[in-house]
Structures
1.
Amino acid sequence: MGWKNPHTGEDLRDHSNHKERGPARYTYTYEDLALITGMKVASLHVAKSRGDFDIKDLVSVAEYICRKRGWTAPTR
């Protein structure tokens, strides 16, 4: 069969619903973190610059959220 639609000859990879295989990726923004923590985006930027969390490290962000919400964070 390949990538061609047998009825139209259209390349299925050009279709808007085509998804490459591989692990799913999820994203979050400072606005998402502000909503979860109840903080302002500017305050989160300050906290990041102080080294309170690493925005590129999901575990670091999760630990920061737990600290801000008063939850016990799991240890690594």
2.
Amino acid sequence: MTSSEPCRAELQAIAAELRASLAESLSPDQQAYAALAKDGELYPWTEQAEAIWARASGSDLWRDHHLAILHHAKAYDLETAGSPDAFQHWTAALRHWSAVRADDAFWARMARHLSERMGTEIAPGVIDGVRARLPRELLEPHRDLIATYQASNPERARSHMHIMTSAPFDPDVIDGIRLQFTEEVLAAVPDAVMTADFEKMIASLCGWQHIDPDNAHLLRSLLYVYRKFNEQVWDADDGLTRVSGNVAAAQQILQALGVSPPDPAGVTGYVDRLKALRPGGLPPGALTAEIARHEVWGGLVSYRLARRRFSWKSDPGSRRECEQGAARAVNHFAMAHQLDSHLALDHYYAALPSIEASIESLWGLCLLAKKDHVGAAQHFRRATTLNPSDAEYYLGLAQALLLPDNVTYAALAEAEQAISRADALGAEVGTPRRLLERRRELNLRR
């Protein structure tokens, strides 16, 4: 060890003390600016500078501005590297930018600072314009990144969409940017429907809906394309299978969004939840009208499947499945009418009352088969109300009224009216009339 070595160590210790003393005399901004220098170069961010500004108190007038710039620069670098850590810095940057935008004192200081640097007074309108445009200019890069990642990395696109939609800015500004790409996507829908290119369009919309899951415009268009697809294939040999798949897929989407149609009794709160979906701008009732038609298709599928399970020779399990299917179908139609009271005015759905009557009649037959005559009569009554021109429903009602062991005089009178109505409609009523007369005789004997 040479005599110079202790001297060097002492000098190093003194230098460290001087640096520490100097750092204590510097403001957080000065310390952080010094920390941005590394290996002789100045960087837009360093971990040390971030830590210094993060520890700074709220009294540091430029703290949010510095952190906004730092987190944005760090987010861009991490985004370029494909790192998932980029997202926390995008979010932090927007949070700090939001604080900057809300700070009147900051913008007054900025106006003074620029005026001093430029040697001329900055017009208030210039600063106000920058402040007003700031949210859109901060969010538009996310729109561009979403478009870039949409096909190649949909999960990353979805993360950018979440950052954008949850940004602490005016919802109308966020809506405007969302609608820019939404309108571009939806522009292809009319041609796809006209050319019956349903499956390709559904795949495209589902891809975008995965990225922007609670977008009311995408949801409405997706339900619309599913509906037009259903209308075209329903009468095909494999129509039930294809429509069943479409209904199930649409239902999964609604469930994932938390807007799956409830029991009809809860429709008021449900419609309010639909209205809360953004972006805004849909015509009033447009989304609920599409969900109403989705419910119709759910009802049609349930009815066809139920009808397949019923015959007078069916086992009790099959008849129970038929009854459950009819109940589901009735519930679907009830929800559809609650959501769109003018549904039957749509020419394609004008025949709904007669279909609903058929479902009520099927349910009545299921109940007749298990000797629930009171329940069967209720459903046949509904069938005659929905479609008063079908004699079979009156005959079913008469049968339900006359088959119990004990038939009241009121039931006899109602059965006679039902038989007379069926007779007027041209039905063969010899058997039900004979049953009516036997029941009358039995009552007289009692």
